Amino acid sequence: MNSGKRELHYPDHLVVLLDQATDRIRGDVAARVDWSNLGALRPWHLQILFILPEDGARPSDLAAAAGMSRQALSQWVRELAADDYVVVTVEAADRRNRIVRPTSRALDAITQATTAIADVEAAWAGELGAERFDAFRHTLLDLRDRRAAS
User: For residues 50 and 110, is the Cβ–Cβ distance under 8 A?
Assistant: First the structure.
């Protein structure tokens, strides 16, 4: 039996590379956010806050935009509401519908996260070179847009 330590590596498949890049950018952004004043807010909550319009949205529309089930979204909304990031009200035109709206606390968190993301993008552009970073970003946008068109 070989008792020597072996280094193991993932293959350089695109799926692995994109996953590793995603892990890195999430870590780089999280390191730049001051989480101490954000209560129970976590990076995954920001996914909902980023797509939530200031005038609010119905939970079913948020779930569809986020690509998650309404049940999963409802759990996140409850967590966000408990920590004063969103309020849920009844729609005036149809009292059966609920509307989720961001609070000022959510808008402050979005501003802080957006600043951190911009800082990371600038750092990556400095690391890779602006031209390479722009090409990378435009390639990702193109892939997203082609999927949306199909």
Answer: yes
Sign of CA dihedral 5, 11, 16, 22: positive
Is residue 28 helix, strand or coil? helix
Rounded-to-integer distance, Cα 116 and Cα 30, Å = 8
DSSP H or E run through 77: helix 70-82
Lowest-confidence region among 56-60, 92-96, 105-109 = 92-96
The reported pTM is 0.81
Identify the CA nearest to 39 among candidates 93, 133, 112, 135: 112
**What average pLDDT does the segment 61-80 reach?**
93
Q: What pLDDT does 149 receive?
A: 84
What's the whole-number mean pLDDT along residues 136-144? Answer: 94
d(CA 48, CA 27): 18
Bridge partners (DSSP) listed for residue 101:
87
Task: Name all domains of the chain by residue range, CATH numbers in brackets.
Answer: 14-26+36-149 (1.10.10.10)
